[in-house]
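In the present case, backbone shapes were mapped to integers, as reproduced here:
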Amino acid sequence: MTDRISVEEYRRMIGKKETAKRDYKTDKQNRIAWALLLTRLETELHAPFGGVWKKDTHHEVKERWAYAEYPFAEEKDRKYRLDLAIPSERIGIEIHGLGGAHHTITGRQRDMEKARLANMLGWIYLEYSWRGVASGLVLIDLKEIFAARGLDNGGPVR
């Protein structure tokens, strides 16, 4: 025979679940890293930031422009969005923050499904932490991708 306990007893045993405190210093660092990335995209890769993608205001993708929250799987009836995308080159970037949905089992499974679908649709799908953004790793990788595709990193914006 197994010992059974009530839900109330179980809750008393494990105690109240503590919620993570928001780290405003880290939030500020993340915003600074994001701003730096967007600035360097434009100055070093000549990929201007087109803002947050909105279907009603953006009617076509400009060549080499970067957009935030870009929907990429609508033809598969999915509502997936990329944190940052250069759609003309089919490059998608996901930036995983601290905590949040990316760190749960179901969230990670969703991320893997999103990555799989992006790859099947011909996107280069890159994932980074905020540390990768702040360190410049994103920019280094994008420069290598541009070079491998024979795209110039300089010159006027097309």
Summary: The helical segments are 7-14, 24-45, 105-120, 130-135, 137-148. Residues 154-158 have pLDDT under 50 and may be disordered. The chain has one domain: 25-148. DSSP finds five helices and five strands in the chain.
